[in-house]
């Protein structure tokens, strides 16, 4: 069913998807500049890029988890953002240096991702259900330990990451998202481990029979997703100089939307970083544009919902036409 | 359930769902004992009836959720359906329509939204989790757009006897729950439709080959869940006499949790309504007892989440030698 001429053909649907996404982005930009006179200005670009990194990191993590197949999904990323934030904030209150606390936060993210990975891949609980449960548990823990109140008073120099700019571009974008995206893209397209991930997503049985450690690879992807979520959390904290216990609320859905819109097939095996990046730009453009045009945030929600459904249904229709399904 | 036990000797005194039900009953008794010792208010008729009234909407929605999950689907948008139906009901009351017009209107709104979910999953071939995530966005967008930040308040409580009334010594809300579960039980156990649900949940391709109209059955089931969500909205309005912005935010996740706790397999094909009802009772008693013991209600989500993880893990360990459940 998933048989493809290795590598050669696999690029094609992705490239078509990429062009479609670029066109969609252009449409979004045109519509938004018609809606608001403030949108099409040079000052919008850094403003837009300010919003991109947090969501971008979550979207990339989600892309990898879904790409690895299974079917895999990580609904707990939003809660990981909240919990890591609360933990880092708590450590800071206890007197730990904020940068050291951030490093520990990354490790906590890895640990939470590892929990997800074990639940899904070792215990074989369906990913949707397992990460829904951990979403409850992690998110609830973040709220309950702080009684719902944010931890503020982070030092101003910590704001370098989230507020600072270099060459007019936000530091979080330049020094975090961009390198991460490039590294992940190279990893998926140019390294053996990337090919292994795609192989697991295409047909885990075949991957297993050819000797790939399918379970280990997929657990690794969940860990990576947890680390990226923790990174997103640190950026958010550095931006607001506070750790909100509900910082990641709703982000998991946006992350899934972005990954799927970016052309990652929901059952794995197809997808990549460029599509996800453009999808992030589209979603952020819509958000910023509607904000600037002073249109109710509700339209954003609805639009994202429609995008999510349409992006998945288009893909399956396309696959059926192509006879990709047996 | 027989299908899952096929790989091992049929030497069981009770079927696995029945064993789950017995375990839940034991857990409920245990929890009740602890709370009775801990708080003098717990074991009073007043408190228990209040708890049941508070669990009315959840138990109604969970009945529909059980059918959907047995079918191998899921619906995370049910909170949105409750919200939109409640808004339809609220607006209709405000427009001065009498209760015998408002009631079918609310039910129809819920049914239509449920059928929309069914349509997206079957005809557009979007996986149910993605489809309902998308429609959840759309429904909450509708909600925000219609009521903005304001509440719809001062609604007539014409239907409130259904919630608060007494029929002799029997609370009317218990009667409502009994009727809903009886109808769902007849659908699931006494009609061919129920067998079709189990068949689709076990293996959709096989169900198609046998000649079951899978698409129609699915749409009907999602519509039935929508109908129950509409009923829940009616009762919510009757109980609260207003429509607020955060209506239905947790009900989908709670309903899924109750269903899974009750022994319904997230992979579909296995499940019972009695288990779900016990799951609802367990969740609500936990919540009530924790409040009485003075533990912040913020811990609820942590507990539900951890409980879900434990149950899923236990299921996974029990089925680890069973190839069908892989």
UniProtKB/TrEMBL annotation, chain A:
Record keywords: Cell inner membrane, Cell membrane, Membrane, Transmembrane, Transmembrane helix, Transport
Entry's localization field: Cell membrane
Main location: membrane
Membrane topology term: Multi-pass membrane protein
Superkingdom, taxonomy of origin: Bacteria
Residues forming coiled coils: none
Membrane-spanning ranges: 21-41, 47-68, 75-93, 99-120, 127-147, 167-188, 219-241, 253-269, 299-317
Quaternary organization: The complex is composed of two ATP-binding proteins (LsrA), two transmembrane proteins (LsrC and LsrD) and a solute-binding protein (LsrB).
Reported function: Part of the ABC transporter complex LsrABCD involved in autoinducer 2 (AI-2) import. Probably responsible for the translocation of the substrate across the membrane.
Protein name per its UniProtKB record: Autoinducer 2 import system permease protein LsrD
Record organism: Kaistia terrae
UniProtKB/TrEMBL annotation, chain B:
CDD domains linked: TM_PBP1_transp_AraH_like
Keyword Plastid included in the entry's annotation: no
Bilayer topology: Multi-pass membrane protein
Alphabetic keyword roster: Cell inner membrane, Cell membrane, Membrane, Transmembrane, Transmembrane helix, Transport
Transmembrane segments: 22-43, 64-89, 95-116, 128-154, 166-188, 219-239, 245-262, 298-317
InterPro entries: ABC_transp_permease
Keyword Ligase: no
Compartments in which it is found: Cell membrane
Subunit structure: The complex is composed of two ATP-binding proteins (LsrA), two transmembrane proteins (LsrC and LsrD) and a solute-binding protein (LsrB).
Task performed by this protein: Part of the ABC transporter complex LsrABCD involved in autoinducer 2 (AI-2) import. Probably responsible for the translocation of the substrate across the membrane.
PANTHER family: ABC TRANSPORTER PERMEASE PROTEIN YPHD-RELATED-RELATED (PTHR32196), AUTOINDUCER 2 IMPORT SYSTEM PERMEASE PROTEIN LSRD (PTHR32196:SF71)
Name of this protein: Autoinducer 2 import system permease protein LsrD
Organism of origin: Kaistia terrae
